[in-house]
Amino acid sequence: MRIVIKIGTSTLAYSTGRMNLRRVEGLCRAMCDLKNAGNEIILISSGAIGMGVGKLGLKGRPSDMPTKQAAAAVGQCELMYTYDKLMGEYNHTVAQILLTADDIRDGRRCENFRNTLFRLLELGAVPVVNENDTVATDEIVIGDNDTLAAVVAADIDADLLVLLSDIDGLYTADPHKDKNAKLLSEVKELTEEILACGGGKGSELGTGGMRTKLHAAKIATEAGIDMIIANGADPDVLYNILDGKPFGTRFIGRRAGGGKGEER
User: When comparing pLDDT for 101 and 112, which is higher?
Assistant: First the structure.
């Protein structure tokens, strides 16, 4: 399988902005193991700004663009060093790809991105993709890595998109506020009722939230790709998902030539 895995800032880091090493080590080990099994893994990694905030000793996520970009420049180094070190321990090579919105929108530049990524997969590398926050200026332009992950998954015809966050999946209401909120294990159609379940932003250091994940689900499912939202607190979640166990919320892709939720 060709699997795009997006890891959110809240999964990667503590509230201080410093990396959650135990969790990241477990996730890297699981991804390397899945790759050993013959899967192609593309990692969409948030956390550059959050890591930079922690390493620079800032009090919180900056609001002005120059400081966001400075934090991203510092944090991106931290992220790639960590991924390179941890995956290298399992004999896997990582490759950094930084994108802007123009790299996605412009046909020729998008084709160059695809060619590079496919060649990296052929060479056995694990592409680590993030938005190029150090040069982007329009709310760090694509806006969130949930959307970026879905766009990348659609562009490369992925088999599955997995969004790892700090929540178990999509609930009927905010589980932090409503004790009667129920986890939805499967979504076959993004109805207005489902879209209304999206809330606000996630962690203080991140930019996403359930709303951006539902937007990602729309992009992915319209491209015929299943998408799963799951809690990344336990790295074994990746094994459970690949073993076909019900975990988190699965959004069923619209299959070509068939109805919603119909198998390819």
Answer: 112
Q: Tokens standing for 46? A: 């948030």
Is the Cβ–Cβ distance between 251 and 163 less than 8 Å?
A: no
- Give yes or no for residue 87 having a pLDDT over 90: yes
Mean per-residue pLDDT over the chain, rounded:
86
Q: Which helix (H) or strand (E) holds 40?
A: strand 40-45
H-run or E-run covering 45: strand 40-45
Q: What is the pTM of this model?
A: 0.87
Distances in Å between the alpha carbon of 211 and those of 10, 150, 194?
16, 14, 10
Nearest to 182 by CA among 192, 191, 194, 190: 194
Distance, CA of 21 to CA of 27 (rounded, Å): 10
- At residue 128, the pLDDT reads 96
